[in-house]
């Protein structure tokens, strides 16, 4: 749900406080721990400088820095930021894994999501699934579709800072645990005024993840998958994987969202209905070039027809300002809901595909039997 957001006059981001939060509260970096950064050197340089200072102040060791691709360099890569040479892809992955094995902490600091293919992505997927360290995502980025001087960028910065520095973390953790207790082992129904109506079951003994703002070394050692070894800043997501053959119904998309995944842009086919039966996509229905959509879908490989993950947002301070082209911070705000289609390697899943798509829904109602968990886009 979008809201009007007022930013105080003369407000500026408190980069030192945010950096201190990342280093000392979220990651709890200890003396001697080795850190790898992945950065866009042209975006939020002050935040990077403050994070580096905070790392050094606790006795951390700066092990390496990975730079995202510039426009010129992206032209030498694929839309996913990888080399076009399959052999080089494998060599690059292995080289980065070798690097990570020398470190303890990985920080993915803000990069520019107004363009695609500026990074490879395997640092937080393929590598985290094989590495014993821990990391953060800090996707603090300008609105992908708004022009440079648009006020929505300042609103997003203000919202992100509040959602990090003013959040009641104890209350968030309690709220997330209550939500887990309500959904574990039950069947959920998700509906929207736009026509979504889908049910699916959640295994009692399945994988569940609470993104609650803390990822110490001890907690990371208990991880079972990549998601458990990385924390979002700001936080707020509750994640799980539906039972394999349980999804039935339709996901109805009527609004475009700026960034939704790979390898194609869902926005080109909205309004779009995605029909599920017994856990698999059986039909894609679009009023915009449905033949092209189905041709692209047919060319995809692996578990492209699977519901890979659901994400429920719980952070009450992550509001979405009017004019934003996508839900604030990937839909981690209170009552936001996201379906993920296809590959779910990050989330302890078994699906493998070159389809990796996020479907953001607003104004959802989520029920478990007679229990209403989310009503019109708000956690109850």
Please, could you describe this protein's structure?
With about 375 residues, the protein is α+β, with helices and mostly antiparallel strands. It folds into two domains: about 10-140, Rossmann fold (3-Layer(aba) Sandwich), CATH 3.40.50; about 175-380, no CATH class. It is about 25% helix and about 25% strand. An eight-stranded antiparallel beta sheet has the order 14-13-11-7-6-19-20-21. Strands 8-10-15-17-18-12 form a six-stranded antiparallel beta sheet, with helices on one face. Strand 20 and strand 21 (about 380) form a beta hairpin. The longest helix has 15 residues, at about 85-100. It is globular. It starts with a strand and ends with a strand. The mean pLDDT is about 95.
Please identify the oligomeric state. single chain
The helix fraction, in percent, is: 10-25%
Question: Strand portion, in percent?
Answer: 25-35%
Low-confidence runs (pLDDT<50, min 5 residues)? none
Shape: globular
Major beta sheet, strand line-up:
14-13-11-7-6-19-20-21
């Amino acid at each position: 749900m979008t809201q009007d957001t007022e930013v105080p006059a003369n407000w500026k981001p408190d980069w030192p406080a945010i950096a201190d939060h990342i280093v000392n509260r979220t990651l709890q970096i200890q003396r001697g721990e080795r850190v790898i950064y992945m950065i866009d050197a042209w975006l939020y340089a002050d935040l990077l400088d403050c994070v580096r200072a905070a790392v050094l102040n606790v006795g951390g060791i700066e092990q390496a820095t990975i730079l995202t691709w510039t426009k010129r360099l992206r032209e030498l890569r694929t839309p996913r930021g990888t080399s076009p040479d399959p052999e080089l892809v494998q060599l690059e992955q292995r080289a980065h894994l070798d690097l990570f094995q020398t470190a303890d902490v990985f920080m993915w600091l803000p990069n520019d999501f107004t363009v695609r293919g500026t990074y490879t992505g395997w640092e937080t997927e393929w590598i985290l699934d094989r590495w014993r360290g821990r990391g953060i995502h800090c996707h603090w980025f300008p609105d992908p579709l708004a022009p440079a001087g648009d006020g929505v960028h300042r609103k997003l910065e203000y919202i992100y800072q509040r959602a990090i520095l003013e959040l009641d973390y104890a209350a968030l953790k309690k709220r997330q645990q209550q939500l887990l207790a309500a959904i574990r082992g039950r069947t959920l129904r998700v509906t929207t005024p736009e026509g979504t109506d889908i049910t699916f079951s959640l295994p009692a003994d399945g994988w569940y993840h609470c993104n609650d703002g803390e990822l110490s070394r001890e907690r990371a050692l208990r991880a079972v998958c990549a998601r458990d070894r990385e924390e979002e800043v700001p936080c707020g997501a509750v994640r799980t994987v539906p039972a394999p053959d349980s999804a039935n119904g339709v996901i109805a998309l009527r609004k475009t969202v700026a960034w939704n995944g790979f390898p194609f842009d869902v926005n080109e086919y909205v309004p779009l209905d995605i029909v599920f039966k017994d856990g698999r996509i059986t039909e894609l229905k679009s009023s915009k070039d449905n033949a092209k959509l189905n041709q692209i879908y047919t060319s995809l490989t692996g578990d492209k027809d699977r519901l890979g993950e659901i994400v429920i947002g719980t952070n009450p301070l992550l509001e979405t300002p009017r004019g934003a082209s996508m839900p604030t911070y990937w839909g981690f705000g209170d009552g936001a809901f996201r379906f993920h289609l296809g590959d779910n390697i990050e989330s302890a899943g078994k699906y493998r595909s070159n389809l990796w798509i996020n479907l953001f829904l607003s104004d959802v109602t989520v029920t478990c039997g007679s229990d209403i968990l989310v009503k019109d886009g708000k956690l109850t």
